[in-house]
């Protein structure tokens, strides 16, 4: 568990289902505290005691429920996903719907991505210089941004990539300096310029 910006915590865990590390976030720079695409960190749920308890959990898409049920049970947190992804969840997984364009608790803005799947969402947090949190739409590999591999992009990968570029060009209108990725290390400082360069390339 690492505090990468004031009130912004990041950690990685190994996801057995996809056989790779994935990234989760805990945000106390806004109130109430929230989680994004969380898995339980190696420190366990006890780490959060003594910190502002997360009251909301935001999923960038339906596939990122991960360990949300454990956080919900431990802290009474509400899990949120775009309404078009709710069919994924069982009766035991209580998930509250949002729409693209909604302002969620803590002032988090749910931005439309779609393209990959109807509920794909980027989360905009207007704190510590501005943050854009991205699920599966764009990933980070070392010092480079990329899309997920072509076999995961359907029958027409180029069309999907073009659609994602168009969507994120619109999101460049927001003020942000940092990117948080579900797949790849966070990009702290200068992230908007890096995203613009990737989209233009």
Short description:
The protein has 201 residues and is α/β, with parallel strands linked by helices. The protein contains three helices and 15 strands.
CATH superfamily, by name, is: Ribonuclease Z/Hydroxyacylglutathione hydrolase-like
How many DSSP H or I helices? 3
Strand % is 25-35%
For this structure, the CATH topology is Metallo-beta-lactamase, Chain A
Overall CATH class: Alpha Beta
Major sheet size, sense and barrel closure:
7 strands, mixed
Molecular shape = globular
Termini gap: 33 Å
Sheet with the most strands: spatial strand order = 1-2-3-4-5-6-7
How would the blueprint of this fold be written?
Layout: E1 2-5, E2 8-15, E3 20-27, E4 34-36, E5 56-58, H1 68-75, E6 78-82, E7 95-98, E8 103-104, E9 108-112, E10 121-125, E11 131-134, E12 139-141, E13 144-146, H2 157-171, E14 178-181, E15 187-188, H3 191-200
Helix pairs in contact: 2-3
Descriptive account of the structure:
By secondary structure, this protein is an alpha/beta fold. It has one domain (2-200): Metallo-beta-lactamase, Chain A (4-Layer Sandwich). Helices cover 16% and strands 31% of the residues. It has three helices and 15 strands. The chain has helices at 68-75, 157-171, 191-200; strands spanning 2-5, 8-15, 20-27, 34-36, 56-58, 78-82, 95-98, 103-104, 108-112, 121-125, 131-134, 139-141, 144-146, 178-181, 187-188. Strands 1-2-3-4-5-6-7 form a seven-stranded mixed beta sheet, with helices on one face. A hairpin with a 2-residue loop joins strand 1 and strand 2. The chain is globular and about 45 Å long. The N and C termini lie far apart (33 Å). 38% of the residues are buried. The model has no long low-confidence stretch (mean pLDDT 96).
């Amino acid at each position: 568990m690492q505090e990468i910006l004031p009130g912004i915590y990041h950690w990685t865990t190994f996801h057995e289902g996809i056989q790779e590390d994935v990234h989760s976030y805990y945000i106390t720079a806004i109130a109430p505290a929230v989680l994004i695409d969380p898995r339980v960190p190696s420190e366990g749920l006890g780490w959060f005691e003594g910190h502002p308890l997360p009251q909301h959990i935001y999923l960038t898409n339906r596939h990122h429920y991960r360990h949300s049920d454990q956080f919900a049970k431990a802290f009474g947190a509400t899990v949120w996903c775009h309404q078009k992804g709710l069919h994924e969840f069982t009766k035991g997984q209580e998930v509250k719907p949002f729409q693209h364009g909604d302002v969620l608790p803590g002032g988090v803005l749910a931005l439309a991505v779609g393209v990959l799947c109807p509920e794909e969402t980027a989360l905009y947090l207007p704190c510590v210089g501005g943050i854009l949190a991205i699920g599966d739409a764009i990933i980070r590999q070392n010092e480079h941004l990329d899309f997920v591999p072509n076999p995961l992009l359907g029958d027409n990968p180029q069309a999907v990539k073009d659609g994602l570029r168009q969507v994120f060009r619109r999101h460049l209108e927001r003020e942000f300096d940092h990117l948080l990725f579900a797949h790849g290390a966070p990009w702290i400082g200068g992230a908007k310029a890096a995203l613009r360069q990737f989209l233009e390339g």
